[in-house]
Specification:
The chain is of the alpha/beta class. It has nine helices and seven strands. A five-stranded parallel sheet has the order 2-1-3-4-5, sandwiched between helices. Strands 6-7 form a two-stranded antiparallel sheet. β3, α6 and β4 form a beta-alpha-beta unit. α1 runs parallel beside α8, α2 crosses α8 and α5 crosses α6. The longest helix has 22 residues.
Length: 251
């Protein structure tokens, strides 16, 4: 069987986006890493939020091998993934006014903490209000979004603003409007989204930058090891015990 032409084209597109983000967003990624390191060093807490498929990149940095133990998922019920039934309800919840404030008010997040908000379009009420409310509470907000949407679509929030307008640091994923990298004869809609690949890479690069900053300040980054290697469970148990006041996914 010959190789798939379309599969190769997708890899080329994804690699091109990754190279572009690496080259064009390096300063912002370093700044985000420094903000996370500042918070860790000051005894603060870390949270990540994303709705729908954007939640995949948030979950990718929470409680995982090779990850910073202190990152917590800020979950909005019904908006974390496609497990809600019907799946379209998750999309509808992203447009509900007031939901972000209710979630933040009942969360452990407080002034001085960091919240990373992931939203590809950044145009729905949920991520915009999450950023606005978080900053009002005194959190530092890092937004991971596609600036192209802010330039080429209209906001769905009453303010007319996008996620990028309410962040301390913005990381641009460079994903084009529609999040589909390929077109082909016989396939009527554009297809092959790359936002998950690129956004997850941005998140991991940001966490690597944070770890680098912590080491530079003489602080050992509290990383988790794989539970599938010898000694991994014991290592993780020690880390979670030491930092239990800043880890919320065990409660």
């Amino acid at each position: 069987m010959s190789d798939s032409k379309l599969a190769g084209q997708f890899f080329d597109a994804a690699i091109g986006l990754l190279e572009r983000v690496r080259d064009e967003e390096s300063g912002n990624i370093a700044a985000a890493g420094a903000a996370i390191a500042d918070t860790v060093a000051a005894g603060g807490r870390l949270f990540a939020f994303g709705a729908g498929h954007s939640s995949l990149a948030a979950q990718d940095v929470v409680y995982r091998a090779g990850g910073l133990a202190l990152m917590n998922l800020l979950a909005v019920p019904g908006a974390v993934g496609v497990d809600v039934m019907p799946a379209t309800l998750g999309s509808a919840l992203e447009r509900v006014d007031g939901l972000a404030g209710a979630v933040l008010d009942s969360s452990p997040a407080e002034a001085g903490d960091v919240l990373v908000i992931i939203s590809l379009s950044g145009r729905n009420a949920l991520p915009v209000e999450m950023a606005m409310n978080a900053r009002a509470l005194g959190l530092k907000v890092i937004g991971v979004t596609s600036v192209a949407y802010a330039d080429g679509t209209r906001s769905r929030h009453s303010s007319g603003g996008f996620l990028r307008d309410h962040c301390d640091i913005v990381l641009d994923s460079k994903i084009s409007i529609g999040d589909a990298e390929l077109t082909a004869d016989g396939i009527e809609a554009p297809f092959a989204p790359a936002s998950t690949v690129v956004t997850s890479a941005v998140m991991q690069a940001m966490m690597a930058a944070a770890a680098e900053q912590l080491v530079a300040r003489g602080i050992e980054p509290p990383m988790l090891r794989s539970g599938n290697v010898d000694g991994g469970h014991e290592w993780n148990g020690r880390v979670m015990t030491e930092y239990r006041d800043r880890i919320f996914y065990r409660r």
